[in-house]
Amino acid sequence: MKKMNLNTFAQYFPPRLTETLLIMGIKDMQEIRINAERNASVLKNGNLLDTGVFIKREELSSIINAMCRGSMYAMQNSLSKGYITLQGGHRVGICGKCITENGEITHITDISSACIRISRAVYGAADGIMEYLDFHGKLYNALIISPPGCGKTTVLRDAIRQLGNRYRVCVADERSEIASCKNGVPSHDVGKFTSVMDAVPKAKGMMMLLRSMSPQIIATDETGSYEEEEAIYRIINAGAKILTTAHGYNERDILNRKYLGNLLERGVFERIFVLSNRKSIGTVEKIITDGKVMRHN
User: Fold this and answer.
1) Number of neighbouring beta carbons within 10 Å of residue 290
2) Does residue 211 or residue 122 have the better pLDDT?
3) What are the C-alpha distances in Å from 7 to residues 4, 20, 78, 172, 285?
4) What is the DSSP letter of 180?
5) What is the three-state SS of 225-248?
């Protein structure tokens, strides 16, 4: 596992919060949650813990401003979508007052909450699914399903790394979470043959990669829109494979969704992996191959 250094976040936080997090131990933290005029909290091993550190509204504003490198205006495109991504792939979700124009959110002001989801590269996280993704050189279209905070992006990242050391893997990394590119270069190990299209809308990114990079596998995270469904059909019709993820507790959750449900009903995903955090983050609960349950813990 790549070690997480608290200095990654210390540059943004009041010293008393950093000191408390250090005492609590950041090793198993999944999230750091900061609400204005309340105590900060952490999600650790699936449990919400109160830090006892009260955060004033102006302190939260300073934290967000620092995360935006002193220019919230320059980050408005990302902020208007409800998040920003820090170096290292850590995603910061925000809540506040939404300003709309013609039905579209253009700004979020008066930010009242921030949720920092800690990104880690865990080597071997995908070991339990690799033989189903790559069976003696035969690759499969695959979907990884899990509830939030149960490791789907971590498992996806490690699967990309392992596949990317053998095949032409291309990644459409919309939120800069998978590869965490810095100046175009991945901060996480995504495999020596892997190419990354960073900060690109998933559907557009997948099509750009399909047209220009001769991929054997295209990977992305949190698929679910009509445009992404259409892009996936084009990928498989072109002879490439798709590796992606979705929020859900099981495959039945996905069947109830309009676009992802279509893909499942038509058998597009030859391999489906359902994850939980029952034993640890990324526990493989169920493996479905070609519509048949191969393993169910």
Assistant:
1) 11
2) 211
3) 9, 13, 24, 29, 35
4) -
5) CHHHHHHHHHHHHCCCEEEEEEEC
Task: Please tell me whether the overall predicted TM-score, pTM, comes out greater than 0.85 for this model.
Answer: no
Q: pLDDT tens for residues 23-67?
A: 998 777 889 999 999 999 999 877 899 999 999 999 999 999 898
Task: Give the distance between the most distant pair of CA atoms in the chain.
Answer: 57
Query: Could you give the C-alpha distances from 144 to 67, 235, 272, in angstroms and in order?
Result: 30, 18, 6
- Cβ proximity of 108 and 73 under 8 Å: no
**Of the candidates 79, 164, 166, the residue with the CA atom closest to the CA atom of residue 178:** 164
> Could you tell me the CA-to-CA distances from 54 to 39, 57, 112, 148, 208 in Å, in that order?
4, 10, 13, 26, 46
Report strand pairing: 91-101 vs 38-44: unpaired
CA angle 126, 153, 112 (to 5 degrees): 155
Q: How many Cα atoms within 13 Å fall on the side-chain side of residue 107?
A: 6
Whether the Cβ atoms of residue 31 and residue 118 lie closer than 8 Å to each other? yes
State the pLDDT at residue 1.
Answer: 42
